[in-house]
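Morning run. Coffee first, then this:
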Amino acid sequence: MSKTSSSFLDLRPAQPEDALRIAALARWVWLDRYAAEGGVNSTVAEFLKRDFDEQALRQSIDLSRHWLIERGDTLLAWAHLDDSSVCPVQLSGPAVELKRLYVSPHSQGQGLGLKLLHQARQEWPDRALWLSAWVGNEGALRFYRREGALSWGEAWFELGGQQHRNELLGWPALEPEA
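And here it is:
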């Protein structure tokens, strides 16, 4: 798909030079979804600075898989896959973590998350795919379940000394085509 036309979507692997835009998108989506009471305290600010640091993202792009959806030069959605993460539940074979799947708030409901999820499933078809999603993010949980995710247990995310329960969801490896 053409990157020069503003009407076409481009799904492509991220490059290190995309790190600045990924960091901005990630902070925006995270704040929109998780910022308590619509504000930013120092704990949240430090978390965002650390977890969505441009240089750290640049290095991560070199070490793991990141996919983007753009319209022209505007980043709309991002997925981060990590084949070195260890799934917290015992599985019969190898698995890949879908660490992040973020769609800009103004682009949600347009199928971008589904495109990224399908890309994630196709990336390593011989491996299970898993993720951890906050129980308060009902929209994301509904989306993953609608797309066939199974409940594999729970995990905990700590922020500022507080524990937040997450659901572990996953899909088995894809069946080989006959």
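The two ends are 30 Å apart (CA to CA). Good start to the day.
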